[in-house]
Amino acid sequence: MYILFSFFFSMVVAAILIFLSRCKKTLGEIALLPRYGTGAVDVHPLVGKHISHIDTRIPLPENVKAGWAIVMLMSATCPYCLNRMEEFHKLYLPQYSLPHVCLVQVEEEGQLQKFRTVYERLPLIPVSGMMFQELELNLIPGFLLVDEKGTIVVAVSRIGDLESETAKFLRAHEQIADDLILT
C-alpha cells in the first residue's frame, strides 16, 4: 500500500511541476504580446525616428526621402511577404499613390529573383539579415509610413492597418495645411 501511495504521490507532484513549467512558458509568451485591451499598444522602436536612420546605411531613392512615402520590409524566405506585396499593390496603391520602396532581406544572391519576377517594376533593395537586425527592421512583413518631415510615423504588418493609419495621418496633415491657409 505504501508503494502505491508513494507512486501516486510522485505522479501528482510530477504533473504539478509539468503544469507549472508550461504555465511559466505560456505566461512568458503572453508577456511578449501587445496589450491591445489596455490601450497601451507597444510602439515599434522605429516609430519617431528619422528616415536617415535607414538611409545612412541603406541608400534610399530620393522620392522616398522627399515627403510622404512607404518603406516595405520583406524577406526572401518569408512565406507571407509575397501575399502582403500583392495586397499592397491591389488594395493600397490604388487609394494612395505614395512613393515606395521595398527592402528585401536576402542571404543568398538568387533569393531576390522571386520578388523581381512577380513585381518587376517595384523598387527593390537587397539587404542582409545582419543589416536588418542592426537597423531594427525586424517587422517582416512590414510597412513604414514616413511623413513629410522624414519621420517614421507608423510601423505595421497588415495592409488594413496601413490603410487606416495612412488615412489618419494624411487627414491630420490636410487639417494642418487648412489651418495654415486660414490663419
List keywords for this structure.
5-stranded mixed beta sheet, Thioredoxin-like_sf, disordered C terminus, Glutaredoxin, 48% helix, 5 strands, Thioredoxin domain-containing protein, 15% strand, 183 residues, alpha/beta
Give the topology, please.
Blueprint: H1 2-32, H2 52-55, H3 62-65, E1 69-75, H4 81-92, E2 100-105, H5 113-118, E3 124-127, H6 129-134, E4 142-146, E5 152-156, H7 159-182
Parallel strand pairs: 1-2, 2-3
Antiparallel strand pairs: 1-4, 4-5
Give the gist of this structure.
The chain is α/β, with parallel strands linked by helices and 183 residues long. The chain has helices spanning 2-32, 52-55, 62-65, 81-92, 113-118, 129-134, 159-182, and strands at 69-75, 100-105, 124-127, 142-146, 152-156. The protein folds into 2 domains: 1-33; 52-182, Glutaredoxin (3-Layer(aba) Sandwich).
How would you describe this protein?
The protein is α/β, with parallel strands linked by helices. The protein has two domains: 1-33; 52-182, Glutaredoxin, CATH 3.40.30.10. The protein is 48% helix and 15% strand. The chain has a five-stranded mixed β-sheet with strand order 3-2-1-4-5. β2 (100-105), α5 (113-118) and β3 (124-127) form a beta-alpha-beta unit. The longest helix has 31 residues, at 2-32.
